[in-house]
Write a structure and sequence with these properties.
The chain folds into 2 domains: 3-337, no CATH class; 362-573, Methane Monooxygenase Hydroxylase, Chain G, domain 1 (Up-down Bundle), CATH 1.20.58.220. The chain is elongated. It is built from 22 helices and no strands. By secondary structure, it is an all-alpha fold.
């Protein structure tokens, strides 16, 4: 096998992987909103979870992408751990659709003949002014590149009859009985870890099998190894997620490892079952000991291709049928394996939903960002509570403690804004649809307003500090007025968070509640400011004390402006029309 042939094989593999990624990206963008609502509407019924995982993976043609997406949804709190486990089971069945497509369209029908003409259609669609047609165009081009890559891989693989030394080498590795099964299982695992795509490894296995490189039983062992190797992607994604995300990824590993164990124990009977099913189609039995293809175009070639695809489907289907009754047991197992971290300071900075893992599904990653924004809003509201306490606090030491908290919350808001913005940058760098791009734009604006709310709390603490330095105090009536103003802002917070949650669910229809809250703040601000100025003019109020009071009232009113800006951004980009 010459150097050029090796590089041709690697280039063909790269084309296959790029085509799969492009096809998956086009599918996600074309159906992103539907997939998002589909997964968000998940129920606790394990059977529905399996169907969901099967359906989503069949659509986006990547169990790794589905599993990473499920881990991120668990991280974002959209799915419970039990729901995620059932979805992952379905994803494992869904990924077998790819094997059937490759076996049928890539080998038997050889759709690569139509790939070039189809690419012309994809090009026309991708140049359309309509966003949805562009997504479909990307899907078509990805589909074509996938099967062109597969065709080039088949052509670049050498004929072992012309290279007998390589054939002898392969035969040596496959002549050690059950030890050979374990060797090829390990090879399938490692190859999937390297390629990060069980579909690509499956395609390579089908090529090796159809060309007579390896017997059917060794190819079957490779498929079992691929099912272990594919779990690493989700574990990488979960490594920087929260505890529940790590547990969801671990459940994927437990599911596949358990399946491989029983498949190895019943290896020969399992292959016999596959062979029996294939013979029902009038094809030779590929499960016969040492069954090797002699002519790729013969019935033998068809038998091994369909046999391996059938084995892949049966393995995941049987495994799901066994384990679906033990979802709660798996949940308890992963909870026992991955312990929850010890309680931390409730005021400590940490993101709750966003992880820094790979963005295999940028179309759906906005779920995590939106959940983090709602979390950010609740943190900001907590800062308002400390501002209210600081206004009323007369003890110098306790006030200083509250002032430090407000300073800390301002720093926290800066850091959360930066982390969410960095995540949104990563989402924007991915290939996303126009509608998702507009939502990301709105999120940038919203986190900017939330950061300004953090600045406002710290500003109030500085005004109060200056008041104390000049030995001025607020009487009980003044404190009560400021508390009324804080309560009005808190009601605006309440309306804003309600609107954020409704927008996240796709149920926001109006922001009247936010406008009403803003009117209350403005009316109260005007009343408090005007009455204070009258007090100054009549000599009833101390001018310097009143200046601090009016500054705080104005700061609270500006907080109301930031809050209404957020609801207006939601109205512009998220209202259901």
């Amino acid at each position: 096998m010459g150097i050029l042939q090796i590089f041709t094989l690697l280039g063909a593999l790269g084309m296959f992987l790029y085509g799969m990624n492009l096809m998956s990206s086009g599918l996600q963008k074309a159906s992103g909103n539907k997939l998002r609502s589909f997964l968000s509407a998940m129920t606790s019924n394990p059977f529905k979870g399996v169907l969901t995982g099967l359906g989503v993976t069949s659509v986006i043609q990547s169990s790794s992408a589905t599993t990473v997406m499920v881990v991120s949804f668990v991280n974002a709190g959209l799915l419970t751990l039990a729901q995620a486990i059932s979805v992952i089971m379905g994803a494992n069945i869904g990924t077998t659709v790819t094997a059937w497509l490759v076996s049928w369209l890539g080998f038997k029908a050889d759709i690569s003949i139509l790939a070039i003409p189809l690419m012309a259609l994809g090009f026309l669609f991708s140049n359309s002014k309509k966003n949805q047609r562009q997504n479909i165009g990307e899907l078509i081009v990805g589909f074509c590149l996938l099967f062109l890559g597969l065709s080039f891989m088949k052509e670049s693989v050498p004929d072992l009859n012309e290279t007998p030394e390589v054939l002898d080498f392969v035969k040596t590795w496959s002549s050690h009985g059950f030890a050979s099964v374990l060797i090829f299982l390990a090879f399938g695992t490692i190859l999937t870890l390297v390629l990060q795509s069980s579909s690509a490894t499956m395609a390579i296995t089908l090529i090796m099998l159809s060309m007579g490189w390896i017997p059917f039983n060794m190819a079957s062992a490779m498929v079992l190894g691929e099912n272990i190797g594919t779990t690493i992607t989700a574990n990488i994604a979960a490594s920087v997620g929260n505890t529940q995300a790590k547990r969801a990824a671990m459940s994927h590993t437990i599911f596949n490892v358990f399946g491989v164990i029983w498949a190895l124990i019943f290896f020969k009977p399992f292959l016999s079952l596959v062979g029996y099913i294939i013979t029902l189609f009038g094809l030779p039995n590929p499960s016969v000991e040492g069954f090797v293809v002699s002519q790729p175009t013969s019935d033998e070639g068809t038998a091994v291709l369909y046999g391996l695809s059938m084995l892949h489907t049966l393995f995941n289907t049987i495994n799901t049928f066994i384990l679906i009754w033990f979802v709660k047991t798996i949940e308890k197992a992963v909870v026992a394996i991955i312990k929850a971290p010890k309680e931390q300071d409730s005021d400590a900075f940490r993101l709750k939903y966003i992880s820094a893992g790979p963005l295999s599904t940028p179309e759906l990653a906005t779920e995590e960002a939106f959940n983090e924004i709602i979390h950010f809003a609740n943190i900001s509201r907590k800062g308002l509570g400390y501002a209210k306490m600081a206004i009323a606090e007369k003890d110098e030491d306790k006030f200083e403690e509250l002032r430090n908290k407000l300073v800390k919350y301002e720093e926290i808001s800066d850091r959360i804004e930066y982390e969410i913005a960095a995540f949104l940058n990563a989402v924007s760098a991915g290939d996303i649809s126009e509608s998702t791009s507009l939502k990301v734009k709105a999120m940038y604006k919203i986190i900017g307003e939330l950061e300004s709310l953090g600045d406002s709390g710290e500003l109030i603490s500085r005004i109060l500090s200056r008041r104390n330095v000049h030995n001025k105090t607020f009487d009980a009536t003044t404190v009560k007025k400021l508390e009324d103003m804080v309560d009005a802002v808190d009601k605006a917070y309440d309306a804003m968070i309600v609107n954020l949650e409704a927008a996240h669910k796709g149920e926001l229809q109006t922001i009247t509640n936010a406008y009403n809250a803003e009117d209350r703040i403005n009316n109260l601000r005007t009343y408090l400011r005007d009455s204070e100025i009258e007090g100054i003019e009549s000599g009833e109020k101390n001018y310097q004390t009143s200046v601090y009071y009016i500054d705080i009232v104005n700061s609270l009113e500006r907080m109301g402006d930031f809050i209404i800006n957020i609801s207006q951004d939601l109205e512009k980009y998220f209202v259901v029309k």
